[in-house]
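Q: I'm writing up a methods section and want to include an example of the input and output format. Could you take the sequence below and give the corresponding predicted structure tokens, formatted cleanly so I can copy it straight into the document?
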Amino acid sequence: MLPLVAACNGGDPGEEDFVPETAEASQALACGTTRHGTMGDGTGFACSGAYSTARIDARVQANAICPNGLCNVVEARGDCREIRDREYWAVYTMQFSCYEP
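A: Here is the clean output for your methods example:
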């Protein structure tokens, strides 16, 4: 016995091509000229974990500043130091512009 395979609306002449909303939106946006910056910090059991947490913090701040997305992003790792036994703290910075209509 062969399995039956079917697709929803497969080959329907009235069906439209899928275009993600984000692709449509990004075509109408341009990278702005104003530069912004954020600095995140975070902790972890090693510098790599602390940098990862700090980067997420910086990115959350950047996304709040630029709801349409970021462009011309420059990221940099700052200082990382041990603050307690096997616990590290790190800083991560981002400079960027925002996509604007």
